[in-house]
Amino acid sequence: MKFESATIKDIALKLNLSKSTVSRALRDSYEISEQTKKLVLEYAKKINYRPNPIALSLKERRSHTIGIVVPEFSNNFFSQAINGMESIAYSSGYNVIITQSHESYDREVINVEHMAYRSVDGLLISVSVETENYDHLKKLHERGLPIVFFDRIVEEIDTYKVVCDNFKGAYDATTHLIKKGFKNIAHITSAEQMFITQKRLEGYRKALEDNKIPFQPHLIQYCVHGGKITKEVEDAITSLFKKKIKPDAILSAGDRITTVMLPIMKKLFSTDHKIAYMGFSNSDLTDLFCPSLSVIRQPAFEIGQAAMEQLITIIESKRPIKEFTTKTFESSIIIKESTN
Amino acid sequence: MKFESATIKDIALKLNLSKSTVSRALRDSYEISEQTKKLVLEYAKKINYRPNPIALSLKERRSHTIGIVVPEFSNNFFSQAINGMESIAYSSGYNVIITQSHESYDREVINVEHMAYRSVDGLLISVSVETENYDHLKKLHERGLPIVFFDRIVEEIDTYKVVCDNFKGAYDATTHLIKKGFKNIAHITSAEQMFITQKRLEGYRKALEDNKIPFQPHLIQYCVHGGKITKEVEDAITSLFKKKIKPDAILSAGDRITTVMLPIMKKLFSTDHKIAYMGFSNSDLTDLFCPSLSVIRQPAFEIGQAAMEQLITIIESKRPIKEFTTKTFESSIIIKESTN
DNA sequence: GCTTTAAATGACATCGATTGCGTAAAATAA
DNA sequence: TTATTTTACGCAATCGATGTCATTTAAAGC
Q: Which of A2, A61, A95 sits opposite B61 (nearest CB)?
C-alpha cells in the first residue's frame, strides 16, 4: 500500500512549464509573471498540492520538527511538561513528535537516534532512570544537534538545562514534616546516580541537619527503576519497617514511587497505622486520596515551556552559542491531610 | 546550527570508489568483492556511518515509522493503549511517533497531515471530541494511507477498527447500580455525536429498560468538550441537582469526566451526601480515592496491541485489503466502595 | 593467442523541491 | 534600426541513497 501525492512535476507537466518555474511561482518569486503565478496557484490548489516535507528536509537539512523524549507519559509531570512544550512549539511554527523511553536505556538510545537521523531540528529530553552512559547524547550534541535537558538533566553535557529546585523542594518538604513533629523520616527515592536524586537527598539531609536531627542512612531507600517495578518499592518499604527504629513519615521522590507506595502501605499495614506521607507528585488526583496527599508540586508546564523556548533559541541562533545557562524553577509544597 | 552526518559520498571519496559500489558493499551485495566490502564496512564503522532515513524515505516512500494521534496522554486509557501499540511496533521493527490533539479538531488536522506528509507508513488514531468532520482522514485514506481507528472510531471510514464493547460496559455498570438499589441514575457523558457516547448511552438505556426503570432524559448530561473544561462538568452536575428528582447515582463516561466530577461533587456537597459513583476509568489511582471508585475498565493495552497489529497487516499487505473487521474487546467492571 | 564469459565496479537517473546561472524574447534606450 | 536592458522562463546541480545499465578487467575456454 502506498500513498501518492501531487508533486511539482505533475503541475509542470500539466501546465507545460518547467519545474523551476512552478517552484518559483509557488513561492511567489518576482521572476515569475502574475499570469503564470495565477495559473500555477490555481492548479496547485485544485489538485491539493502540498510540498513534500521529506524532500524539503533532505534539501534544507531541517524539518521544523522537534523531538521530545520522556520516560513515560503516565507520569503527570511529563505529560504536563509536554503540554508546555507543545504550546510554545506550535506558536513558533514547529511541530513536535514525542516518544517514551519507558525508563529503558536501550529504548532511549533507539528513540534519540531515530529522531536525530530523521532530521528533527532539536531534542528535548529527560533521561531514563537507567541511563548512566551519555554517549548517545554526547555524540549528537558534538555534531551540532541542539539539545535541551529538562528535569532529569545530564550534568556533563554543556547546553541549556531547565530544572526544578529539587534541593529546595525536598528541603521544604522535610522541614514541614519535622515541624509537624516527625522524627524518623524515611526517604524512598529513585536511582542513586540521577542528578535529581542526589539533589533531593541533599535537601532532605540539609533539613535534618538544620533541625539537629541525626541522619540515619537506613532510612534512605533507592529504587533503581524509579518505582517502575512495584516489587522494588515493596522491598524498600519492607526493609524500612524491618529496622528497629521505624519511620513515622515517608518522603518519596517522584510521582511513580508516590503512587505505587500508597497501595503497598495499605496492603501491608492496617488502615489505622499512623504514618505521614509526602511526595513529589504532579497528579491532579492526590486530593481525592485517603488521606489526601501532601505533595511537592513542580511547575511542569512552565518547565516545558522554558525548555522549548531555550531549544528554539539554539535552533534559530545564527552563530553557535557558547554560554549556556540552567534555568531553575521553584516547586511548591501543598499541605493536605497526609502529613497531619 | 546544523547537524552533519557521514554519507555514502564521503566513504566513496575516501576509498576512491563510486557511490554505487559503496552502497552495494554496505548492503552486502553479491556483486561486490569481499575485499571491497571489508574495506567499506570498516571505514563506515570508523566514521560511524548511518544511512540517512530522510533520503531513504524520499526514495522508498516509506519510513518504517507509524504515527499515533490521541486526544491526551494524561488520560490513562490512551497512555496505556500507546504502550500496547509500542510493544507491537518495536517488535515488528517499526518506530512510533506520537502526538496529542488536545481534543481540538484543528490540532488533530494539523497533526494528522504533518504525519502523513512526513511519510509515516500508517496512522493509528482516536479522534478528538470536537471532530465531526472527517475529511482530513477520508482524504488520506482514499489516497492509500493505512489507517486504523481505535476507541473513538469513525464509522463512515471503511478500515480496521478496534473498540471496547461500550454498550456492554455501560449496560453492566448500570445494571450493577440498579441491583444496588439506585433508581435515579444520572449519566454524565461526552459529546453527543461521538460513536462511543452513543453506544454507552444505549447500554445505559437498555439496562434501565431491562429493569423496568423509566428513562428520564434530564438525567443525561453531555459535556461537549469531554470534560476537558471543568466548568462544563460543574454545569452538568449543577443542572442535575437543580431538578426535582435528584440523582442517587452517577455513571460517568470517560476518565476525564470521572476524575473531574469527584472534586466538584466534594466542593458542592457535604461529605455525608450519599451518592453512588461509577465511571469509565483506566486510572491506577481510583483505588486510593475516598471512597474507592467502582469503575468500568477497558483493556487499553490489548486494544493498543490489536490496533497496531491490524495496522501493520495493512501496511505489509501486498494487495489492497477489501474486507475490514472491527475487533471488540470486553471491558470489566470493578466494584469498590463508591457504589455501596 | 584470441574469444567468451563472469566478476567487479562505475556512470547516471531517480525520488521532490530549490536555486544559481544561462538565455530567448520582449521592452526600452540610443 | 541597432544596442541594451528587462522580463520570464528553462537547464542542471544539489540533498543522500538505490538500482539499472554499461564498462572494465581478469579468468576461463578453445
A: A2
Interface contact A4, partner B, CB < 8 A: yes
Chain C positions with any atom < 7 A from a protein CB? 7-20
Tell me if B95 and A114 make a contact (CB, 8 A cut-off).
Answer: yes
Same domain for A188 and A140? no
Pairing of strands A147-150, A161-164: parallel
Enter the DSSP assignment of B339.
Answer: G
Q: Are A328 and B9 in contact (CB under 8 A)?
A: no
Assign A4 a pLDDT band (cuts: 50, 70, 90): low
- B69, B73, B92, B295: best to mutate for the A interface, most A CBs within 10 A: B73
Protein B20 CA to nucleic acid D22 C1', in Å?
A: 13
Residue among B50, B100, B284 minimizing CB distance to A259: B284
Residue B140 and residue B231 in one domain: no
Residues B186 and B221 in one domain: yes
Q: Do B195 and B291 have their domain in common?
A: yes
What digits encode the pLDDT tens for the residues A69-121? 999 999 999 999 999 999 999 999 898 889 999 999 999 999 998 888 777 89
Say if residue B272's pLDDT is above 70: no
Q: Is the peptide bond before A291 cis (omega within 30 degrees of 0)?
A: yes
Within 8 A of A99 by CB-CB distance, chain B residues are: 95-98
Q: What is the mean pLDDT of residues A140-157?
A: 93
In chain B, residues with a C-beta closer than 8 Å to the C-beta of A52 are: 58, 117
Q: Is any Cβ of chain A less than 8 angstroms from the Cβ of B3? A: yes
Q: What is the pLDDT of residues A242-258, one digit of tens each?
A: 988 889 999 999 899 99
B138 and B86 within one domain: yes
Q: Is B281 near chain A, with CB under 8 Å?
A: no
Domain that holds residue B152: 59-163+300-330
Q: Domains in chain A: how many in total?
A: 3
CB pair distance less than 8 Å for A53 and B117: yes
Burial of B152 (0-12, 13-18, 19+ CB in 10 A): buried
In this complex, is the C-beta atom of A263 within 8 Å of any C-beta atom belonging to chain B?
A: yes
E strand intervals along chain B:
65-70, 95-100, 122-125, 147-150, 161-164, 185-189, 220-222, 249-252, 276-280, 294-297, 326-329, 332-334
Angle at B232 between CA B244 and CA B171, to 5 degrees: 70
User: Protein footprint on strand D: which nucleotides are under 7 Å from a CB?
Assistant: 7-20
Q: Decide: CB of A31 under 7 A of nucleic strand D.
A: yes
CATH label of the domain that carries residue B67 = 3.40.50.2300
| B70 within 8 A of B82, measured Cβ to Cβ | yes
Residue A227 carries which DSSP code?
A: T
Q: What is the pLDDT of residues B26-80, one digit of tens each?
A: 988 888 888 888 989 999 998 888 888 899 998 888 888 999 999 999 999 999 9
- Cβ separation of A95 and B117 shorter than 8 Å? no
> What strand order describes the sheet that includes A95-100?
A326-329, A161-164, A147-150, A122-125, A65-70, A95-100, B95-100, B65-70, B122-125, B147-150, B161-164, B326-329
